[in-house]
Amino acid sequence: MIAFRGVSKVYTASGREVAALRNVSLRVEAGEIHGVLGQSGAGKSTLIRCANLLERPTEGSVSVDGQDLLALNPEALRKARQGIGMIFQHFNLFGSKTVAANVAYPLEVAGAPREAIRERVEELLSLVGLSDKAQAYPSQLSGGQKQRVGIARALAPRPRVLLSDEATSALDPETTRSVLGLLRDINQKLGVTLLLITHQMDVVKAICDSVSVLERGRLVEQGKVTELLAHPSTRLHQLCFPAFAPPTDAPSGRRVALTLAGEHARRPLLGTLARQFDVDALLVEGAMERVGNTRVGRLLVDLQGSADAVSQALAYLREQGLTLEEAAHG
Amino acid sequence: MDSQLPRLLGVATGETLYMTSVAAVLVLLAGLPLGVLLVVTDRGGLWERPALNRVLGTLVNVGRSVPFIILMVAIVPLTRLLVGTTIGTTAAIVPLVVAAIPFMGRVVEQSLREVDAGLVEAAIAMGSTHRRIVFQVLIPEALPSLVRGTALVIISLLGYSAMAGAVGGGGLGDLAVKYGYMRFRTDVMLGCLVVLLVLVQLVQWLGDALASRFDHTGARSSR
Q1: CB–CB of A109/B132 below 8 Å?
Q2: What are the chain A neighbours of B125 within 8 Å (beta carbons)?
Q3: CB contact under 8 A, A97 and B140
Q4: d(CA A327, CA B9)
């Protein structure tokens, strides 16, 4: 639905060239929620702004819904943009217009008849739960409510793609959860493809199907969130599960780090070890995280038992396809 | 105090109001598009035209830097061309308008530049035409500031119009100089000052009242 091919963006600032994006290629499938994760300054903002040509790439091509945006003339680009919704970190609502007028704006742009606009605005405000605020002005709303208006406005012309530029970064955790829930609902009920950028791992874990990790203008990783998290070698895994601190105590057994994902996260593995191999597992450190509808975890355990039993237990875990790393001895 | 005073003041106030209001309407009509052009033709603007922007900017600066009293004399030929005479209240409107348009242009430019760039960006992202962005986003969002700026320009026009009295424009300035100053009529002088003060206050109050009526950002910041 969205495809970046070899996109680079170079800014010239006071004679020096600064590359915000370097040869970025990215695909977002229809109906997907794709997150671009990166620190501030990584080029996320530039990337998402290239998806509706608020920024023009210096090189490469951007296509949305099968249309090569860079090939469009200004009039055709305006039309194409009407099919690409966007929400912003600071909401960017029109302060001089009521909530209803904000939501009506893109419909007026599209030239919809007045009666149709009125109906659509009502429908959208009820979708985002703000029917009672139609005549309020944005300054009278809370941050979460403003973003809901932003979402209603972006969805008004029934776009197939929604771009979210750090939409929850200015919101508190509680409000973030409810706005993310709304975005998830919209994705599922309306089938809108979502491209979002964020610096918050929690956002990726909460709603993204797939993810790209952006570092200093380059995509260092791309894939399904659950698949990437299942492998300790990936950047995403390392961002989600920071490395265990060097142990201050001597291991009380063979110390191994286990990564639990998919199937493994749903089985009582430690109990199995105890029952089948007579091996006790002491939990040293670790975390289980909810990712979408599944769980992923990383545990540091000391396996206690006879050397034989522990070896057998480890062999069993490997056989099960679990990723495990033995902590360095010493 | 004699019975002449109210009549003198009444006539002069009428002339001042006539000059100022006609000039204000014309200044508004010309200054608004000028300010919009100054903003949209600038680098990074909606309709980037750097050359045109420089020309307009320079014209505005020239207009702003010529003292009104000199401008008034300098454009006498233009005044004659437009109104057929260079003396009288109507003739005084021409230099008033010429002097205040660049001022109004800058005031409008300033107001429009205060509009959050994010709003323009959102409008572009929604596929708006430039015309729609100017009329549906920039101007409505800047309205409170535009109204305050307009009040400022009208108050300046009141001040200029007093000077225009010097070329036979009539009005309160003229009355204050001819009677109040030259004939030592302190009562006329005071009367003129009081009326001017009331007019300035009135415009300011009206401007503030309208501005806050159009201002929906409330006491809290919009962010």
Answers
A1: yes
A2: 52, 54, 81, 84, 86, 163
A3: yes
A4: 98
Q: Is the CB of residue A64 less than 8 Å from the CB of residue A161?
A: yes
pLDDT of residue A329 exceeding 70: no
Angle between helices B4-40 and B50-65 (to 10 degrees): 160
* Prediction ipTM score: 0.89
Contact B169, B15 (CB under 8 A): yes
Q: How far is CA A7 from the centre of its chain?
A: 20
Dihedral sign for Cα A261, A266, A267, A269, please: positive
Distance, in Å, from the CA atom of A158 to the CA atom of A149, rounded to the nearest integer, reads 15
Cβ distance of A139 and B216 shorter than 8 Å: yes
pTM for this one? 0.90
Locate A225 and state its tokens: 């969130």
Here the tokens at position B79 are 């005044």
Residue A44: name the closest of A209, A237, A212 by CA: A212
Tens of pLDDT along A297-321? 999 999 999 999 999 999 999 888 8
For residues A93 and B122, give the distance between their C-alpha atoms in angstroms, rounded to a whole number: 8
Substitution target in A12, A89, A92 with the highest count of B β-carbons within 10 Å is: A92
A184 within 8 A of A152, measured Cβ to Cβ: no
Query: Distances from the Cα of B197 to the Cαs of A207, B160, B186, in angstroms?
Result: 63, 14, 16
Place of tokens 């300046």: B156
B223 against B94, higher pLDDT: B94
Which residue type, as a one-letter code, is found at position A108?
A: E
Rounded Cα distance between A55 and A45, Å, is: 10
